[in-house]
Each structure stands twice: as structure tokens, then as C-alpha cells.
User: Fold Isoaspartyl peptidase/L-asparaginase from Mesocricetus auratus.
Amino acid sequence: MEESARGSIDVSLVVVVHGGGASNISADRKERVREGITRAATEGYNILKAGGSAVDAVEGAVIVLENDPEFNAGCGSVLNVKGDIEMDASIMDGKDLSAGAVSAVRCIENPIKLARLVMEKTPHCFLTGHGAEKFAADMGIPEIPVEKLITERSKKHLEKEKLEKGAEKTDCPKNLGTVGAVALDCRGNLAYATSTGGIVNKMVGRVGDSPCIGAGGYADNNLGAVSTTGHGESILKANLARLALFHVEQGKTVDEAAELALNYMKSKLKGLGGLILVSKEGDWVAKWTSASMPWAAVKNGKLQAGIDLCETRTRDLH
Ligand SMILES: NC(=O)C[C@H](N)C(=O)O
Assistant:
């Protein structure tokens, strides 16, 4: 059975964020995770309220999470088999389907900013590795030592993973994951952004779903916007984000669409994960088949946030 949270207030400004599909989050981290996810949703909403676009809002929300070492994106990214960081990110503007993505980038504080620059300043959708980092330098983004992104927790996480599992990966995401955001702005534009360090102990050069348009996310003003998280190989094969929007296109509610897409991935591939979705009408859902998925949503000034279904909290933003 999936877990989910659902919104049903009047249409206008909406931001939903996630902090990754994960196994159970230890009690001592829950408050820090909840605080981070709430801060990101509030940042995205404030951008929308100040007249910013959906793209501005999702980028702003994801930057907050990339800068927060509690999350597996930017600083705090999980380590690959060599103890190094390789990060993936993507962003999409539902107005014209423009999209930008980067993969396997190392010495960059905010991969989502670079993904946005790929979208806006190049004729391409996707840059990888050295080329992406050269483009970052050309755009004036400072290179930072990769050590600045590596935390004690991510080092311990890799050690533990190597002891427990060797190089074999399961199809269940154990990492507190990937971060993502979706938004609807006052002009009816939709956008998504997703950013990640990937999965712990991954092979060097492994690219997951998060930078792949249609898998890690999708946005189309005629349908909705989605950001996904979970087992990347399964999400890629299921094309999870676009699959969820296909169901919206077929007339399903956001809740039904999310459930159908996640169930398909689970039954066909045994892949677990989660997604956030906002429709063009402003209906939203956060749904997951993993044990938990931190999420927060703001719609018309009302903030809701949770980690497990039974733990949803609501308050008004002023
Ligand atoms: N936890 C995650 O969401 C990981 C991400 N989907 C990946 O496989 O790269």
C-alpha cells in the first residue's frame, strides 16, 4: 500500500518539495529533515508570492536543499565506490518544454543552477562531466574543492554500505535521497527541479534518473509538473514522471495518477520510490512506496509537511 498526502484548496500559487524516498529516518534526524524541507517550501513559495516564475521557485527551493547537508544533493551528496561525489540535476519549464540537465558534476555547489544555465544559455538539454564543468567555469560559477561537499555522515554511510552489501545494490532506496520541487505560478506556468548525489556506493560514471527528462521529472503547462525520487534504474525504465502525467492526460486525478505510476514501477520492476505532482489546476499530491519521503507543500499560504503519513503538520505562513 502506498503512503500519500493530498491537497485540496483553491487554485493559485503552489509549491511542493520532497527530500527523497528513503527507508525509515532515525528519530534524531527527523526534526532537522522536517525543518529543512519546510524551509525549502517556504523559500519557493516566497519567490512565487514576490512574482517570481515557477522556474525561479523550484530552483530556489532546491538550492536550499542542496545547501543543507541533511539531504543527498549538493553538500551531503552520497559517495560513489571510490569515495567521490558525482551529482546529477535537471530542471524544466512547462511553458515551452525547455529543459536543462547536468550529470556526474563534482566541484559545484549548486548543480541545479548549472542545469538552469544549460536550459537558458545553450542550444542543448544535457551536459555531462568535464563538459558540464567547463561550461560552469565559462558561466562564472566557481569551482569548489569536492571535499567541501563531503560530510562525515556520507563517509560513514559509504563504509557501512560496503560492509553490509559489497558493491551489490538492492532496488530499495536506503539513502535519504534526492531532492526535488514542483511549482505553479500566478501566470499558470508549471516547472520542476530535481537534484541528487545518486545512490551510495554507485559505480564511477553511473547516471541515475534525476537528470533525465521524463524520468527524474517533467513539466508541461497543459498537464502538470512532477519530480521523482527512488531507485534510479527503475525510474528510468518506467519513465516515471512522464508516466504519471500520462495518467493525468487520461483524466485521472493527481492522486490516482501518482498511484498508478508508482504501482506500475513496483509491480513491473520491484522498484520503490516516490513523487510529487502538481496539476495545472493546482491540485497536488506527494506519494511514495518507499518507507518514507519527507515532503512539504504550500498552497495559498497554508504549509503542510510530513515524513510519514501519520505525521503531517499544517500551519499558516504569514
Ligand atoms: N534517492 C534517490 O532518489 C536516488 C536517485 N533517484 C538515483 O537513483 O540517482
About this structure: DSSP finds eight helices and 14 strands in the chain. The chain has a mean pLDDT of 92. Residues 27-49 form the longest helix (23 residues).
